[in-house]
Hints:
The complex is a heterodimer of chains A (about 220) and B (about 375). Chain A has about 220 residues and is an alpha/beta fold. Chain A has seven helices and ten strands. Chain A has a six-stranded mixed sheet with strand order 6-7-8-3-9-10. In chain A, strands 2-1-4-5 form a four-stranded antiparallel sheet, covered by helices on one side. Chain A is globular and about 50 Å long. By secondary structure, chain B is α+β, with helices and mostly antiparallel strands. Chain B has 15 helices and 13 strands. Chain B has helices at about 5-10, 15-40, 45-50, 70-75, 110-115, 120-130, 140-145, 185-195, 220-230, 240-250, 255-285, 285-295, 300-335, 345-375, 375-380, and strands at about 55-60, 65, 80-90, 90-95, 100-105, 115-120, 135, 150-155, 160-175, 185, 205, 205-210, 235-240. The longest helix of chain B has about 40 residues, at about 300-335. The model of chain B has no long low-confidence stretch (mean pLDDT about 90). Classes of the chains: A alpha/beta (about 220), B alpha+beta (about 375). The interface of A and B includes residues 15, 47, 59 and 170 of A.
Amino acid sequence: MSETMVKLSGVTKSYFRGAMEIPVLHGIDLDVPTGQFLALMGPSGSGKTTLLNLLAGIDQPTAGHLSVAGEDISRLSDGDMAKWRSRHIGFVFQFYNLLPVLTAYENVELPLLLTNLSGKERRQHVETALSIVGLGDRMKHYPRQLSGGQEQRVAIARAIVSDPSIILADEPTGDLDKQSAEEIMTLLGRLNKEFNKTIIMVTHDPSAAEKAELIRHLNKGVLDR
Amino acid sequence: MKVFKLVYKNAFRHKLRTFLTILGIALAVMAFGLIKTFISAWYAGARAAAPDRLITRHAVSIVFTLPMSYKERLLKVEGVKAVTYANWFGGFYVDPSNFFPQFCIDHTNYFDIFPEFLISPEQFEAFKNERKAVIVGQGLADRFGWSIGDKVTLIGTVYPGDWDFIIRGIYTGARTDTDETIFYMRHDYLDETMRQQSPGRAGEVGWYALQIDDPSRSAQISAAVDKQFDNSWAETRTETEKEFQMSFIELSSAIILGLRIVSYLIIGVILMVLVNTMTMTARERISENAFMKTLGFRGYHLAGLILGESLLIAIIGGVIGMGLLEMAANVAKEGLKQFFPGFTVEPTTFIVCLITAVIVGLIAAIFPIQRALRIRIVDGLRVVD
């Protein structure tokens, strides 16, 4: 049986506007085994991205326990959290979030600047990541010289370059045409199958969600059973 | 990729904006440096003053003269090694607009006490042997195209009439800020002429220069000198050469203060230019900084990137400004040489300009760094769903 990569017990998240509490997530329980490809679906405002942010350690739950990659991340300090995130989390955003002044190569190299790898080792990692996403011949291209699909593939290469424990994808096909979206989903499927990467993906797109191993629905902050 | 490359690429992300910011800083640094050089040139005389020289003048004002007979009494004051004297001549060459300082000096020893004026022994000998001989500075000779042997007529204002001279020497300065625009004539020529034309004005000097044996005793020696002439019809005031020069500079203290204020305002302008650019940068990169944090970049990483960017722009602007300053000073030097012969950008001015640019770079980064540190990742990414 696979190890548990993500474990959430009674996780609640509320935002506060002045004295008013706005509940977003209600008592979420979730187990994600290592190597699973999970799609989270739900309407806008259902709390999908909030849940993803909690898993990435970029937001804190109001209550409950949250363990990712064997670490109770709700107990980490900001500094330890940043270190943990750089080691364990690969994030893929809807709008790619590539730095426009850096080439594809340099964008992918960015997370490795936080490591102790030598320049040569970084080069090997970056070239490997870009070849996995099929952009080995676009290393010197700037984001403006790439299509949306290619930009997202660079973003995926950046997410996997440090070999994270888990990939979190927030609407990775939301800004792409159908064909590019297909390519991205095929790529994520490959990363899951060939490299045994645990992937949790938030999406509105049913055809994208179909590529996942498991689909869970969030509605008004409640996860389906 | 090195971190510096990221700093560099960020700094030049908006090329036009960065170029204009650098240009603004460069021009402001140049203006700041020029004003500083101008003020420094104003103080050149005081800076060039020797610690072992005292100046004795009339206690009431420099415009009143002292008797020549004081020389022997001054020499008897303990601690005084040598005494020379000079007088302001106050004339012009051809046209009143041709201003330059003219002094009637004790030709026997003036240049021994003021060794910063370098003259060849042959020229000095010729000067001593001829009453109408003069020694002029190299800058003055260049200005009017004079050379050794030329006859020059000055039209006197303090001592009216046409005064004929012959150039027997051209001196150069021992230091870069030594004034090379002075016209030195012999005091005995003036004195003899006055004896014939206006006897009441003969036997007078403008001030005495005293060489002392111990600069640390200048206060006591000054007091001893002035005591000699207490209750005489021409009481004296003795002070160090530096204090003497400063008393002239203080006449222009309001102008200097004004210039200093303008120079500080210019630093404010430099700061505003860069703060504006860095603030725009901070606003534009909120989500980018938040995203960098998701990658694991810590607050100090972002602070380092922002600080590096701010410093890079400030230092490039500062260095270009220093280059412009050197060029502008060379141009200004030509136009100002008759008023400020020592108008040269000093190494300390370059250092101050660079330090100012660095400080401006540091200050301009404070607000963007605060903003980058404070922003929560989720707010920066604006991904609350």
